[in-house]
Amino acid sequence: MARHLPAVLLLSIALGCNAGPSPVRDAGDDRPNRVDSHAAVCPSADAGPDTVDFAQIQQIFSDNCIICHAGGSPLNLTVGMSWDNLVGQAAPAPDSCGGTLVVPGDPAGSYLYVKLASPTPCYGSQMPLGEFISQPLPSCVVALVAQWIEEGAPSSGPDGGTALPADAPSTRLAEP
User: Assuming Cys at both sites, which of 45, 53, 69, 125 could form a disulfide with 77, CB separation 3.0 to 4.6 Å?
Assistant: First the structure.
């Protein structure tokens, strides 16, 4: 009998694998499916819009950045302030690494883009930060920022992006 034990063991494993799904539920089955809150903005980025409006960029800042980058911080990204504080401006010390925040036409030379796209920027952490670690934006959202910079980082108009349209899609990161 001991001689046939390996064959019996293999046979029982093989039969167990073909038995179908187990009636016991996995402990994670009752968790809701996580929904990507960027779903509204990402399809348009993936489709490659003709141009990126600064209102789209401001919405990204408003949804993901102004919790830290508002009035009183070295970099204010609130509505009406962000464009003037970014385009052609030196990155605030100490994390400037000698860079300019937004160099129109040059995403790779723009410190803002590097901080959003690189897991290892020259200083600090990839943005945006969560409570304890970086919580990078989806690549389609970072691609919108890159496209906006590539297009010359235009403002929305004479107001420099002071107003967001009421129907601007949210890009806020989903809470875990």
Answer: 69
Q: Is the dihedral of CA 75, 77, 81, 87 positive or negative?
A: positive
pLDDT higher than 80, residue 41: no
Q: Which residue has the tokens 């490659």?
A: 48
* Angstrom distances, CA of residue 28 to CA of 20, 23, 110, 175: 19, 14, 42, 18
Candidates 150, 168, 157, 146; CA nearest to 58 is 168
pLDDT at 167 over 80: no
Q: Which residues, including other chains, have CB under 8 Å from residue 165's CB and lie 6 or more apart?
A: 55
- Exposure string of 137-169, with b = 16+ CB inside 10 Å and e = fewer, is bbebbbbbbbbbbbeebbbbeeebbbebeeebb
